[in-house]
Amino acid sequence: MSLVLTVRPGDGDARPVLDRLLDQVPSGVGDVVLVGGTTGSGRSRAGLGAGPAVREIGTWDASRGDVPHAGLLAATGDLVVLMNADGSMSPHEIPHYLHYLDSGFDFVKGSRFIAGGDFADYPLSRRLGHRALLRVARQVYGQHLTDLWYGFCAFRRSFVDLLDLREDGVELGAELVTHALHYGLRVAEVPSLELPRPHGPSHPRTVRDGARILGTLLDERPHNALSRLAHRRRGRGARRPSHRPSV
User: Fold this and answer.
1) Which residue in 148, 157, 167, 152 sits closest to 85, CA to CA?
2) The model's pTM
3) What is the pLDDT of residues 88-117, one digit of tens each?
4) Alpha carbon distance, N-terminus to C-terminus of the chain
């Protein structure tokens, strides 16, 4: 199994947080890919602390989206887990994700908004934008997800080969979800606790991020999405049949 960890700009000194995360990584993880690492050397390292060996892939470029896609392409395990390395996501949750993959689901994603989940940093403006995007996703894909862009997820390595991943400025968390819906994969949401970040709350750009995710939702929509929407609107506008008995 491969674990892809992402380090964001502004996370401060990532080394202490990475030490703690790697100490918590389950024993079944044999491959750790660090995206936007502490040195940007691109070399294989002997591990941070007592955890498994870590391969660093590239340095961060915010203009290319939320996460450089090279991290997923570099993963070698049959199963891939993606999570942030800023301390907001716990490796202790990984076995729960893997349980759902073992139970037949193809794509498992965390949700902060179902029973057992919670969040530490989610401004009101971002919550409102997220609700609007969820409505679009439900209309276009017919799916009732609760957390669209939370980046903690797990899937099979074969799914990466379907994605045609490229560094195109698209938010990767939303791109993965919409691709999974586009290909009709069995998607499961599991509760996840978003923990307080050691370096303080993030400063997301809600309008920019929302525009990218909306574009991804529309670009990846199923071919029958528009006709389904039109049929649904016609159905709502149709006159209800009269129940008055005939004479």
Assistant:
1) 152
2) 0.77
3) 899 999 999 999 999 999 999 999 999 999
4) 71
